Amino acid sequence: xxxxxxxxxxxxxxxxxxxxxxxxxxxxxxxxxxxxxxxxxxxxxxxxxxxxxxxxxxxxxxxxxxxxxxxxxxxxx
Length: 77
Fold this sequence. Notes:
Elements: H1 3-17, H2 22-37, H3 39-52, E1 56-59, E2 73-76
Antiparallel strand pairs: 1-2
């Protein structure tokens, strides 16, 4: 699947599973990742994660206290 297809798949799973589910939380995380890095980078990372059996996560380049708690990095873990 392409990164866009993977993103859409996770968003659909989030809607089907409902508020508070692991799928819902991951769908929200992916949406936040789009806001941080943009579609192209997130879609590439989704493809990488799919091929390696990993997931995307949000990270901080500085401590959350000095960054007002907002993540600013998207990583594959």
